């Protein structure tokens, strides 16, 4: 695989993760806000009905304030519902974009020149570095030899004991010294 397809795959994975997180946040936030708004509206309605039954304890002014508060909360609830719908629409559009990107990547991978480019890159690296990898069963070992005009140097690293960083740097150092 070439660097473009790896980058595209990494971008797609990041987009998938981001979409999943966004979708989850939208749902959680939406459910929570709906519950809170409905609870508050219900409480205000109960207070309003109680106040209408007990006119002697609440003034008309207090009742009007409760009504205004209830209407304001209902308007805010409706606004949040519209925002939720907008976010859901954005998530659907992002999912469609992701599906389109996946389709494009599949088409690109099916193109006749996609696989030879990757093979060419590997062969070019092999020819430049002069590293020949051992074809034997690896069992957590990286082994082979570096062949230059001045000589040949073998290498064998244990992946469990040595980091990838160490192995890479050692191979570069060996290829420079041979």
TrEMBL record:
<keyword id="KW-0539">Nucleus</keyword>
<keyword id="KW-0995">Kinetochore</keyword>
<dbReference type="InterPro" id="IPR013252">
    <property type="entry name" value="Ndc80_Spc24"/>
</dbReference>
<comment type="subunit">
    <text>Component of the NDC80 complex.</text>
</comment>
<keyword id="KW-0132">Cell division</keyword>
<keyword id="KW-0131">Cell cycle</keyword>
<keyword id="KW-0158">Chromosome</keyword>
<comment type="similarity">
    <text>Belongs to the SPC24 family.</text>
</comment>
<keyword id="KW-0175">Coiled coil</keyword>
<feature type="coiled-coil region">
    <location>
        <begin position="77"/>
        <end position="111"/>
    </location>
</feature>
<keyword id="KW-0137">Centromere</keyword>
<keyword id="KW-0498">Mitosis</keyword>
<dbReference type="Pfam" id="PF08286">
    <property type="entry name" value="Spc24"/>
</dbReference>
<comment type="function">
    <text>Acts as a component of the essential kinetochore-associated NDC80 complex, which is required for chromosome segregation and spindle checkpoint activity. Required for kinetochore integrity and the organization of stable microtubule binding sites in the outer plate of the kinetochore. The NDC80 complex synergistically enhances the affinity of the SKA1 complex for microtubules and may allow the NDC80 complex to track depolymerizing microtubules.</text>
</comment>
<protein>
    <recommendedName>
        <fullName>Kinetochore protein Spc24</fullName>
    </recommendedName>
</protein>
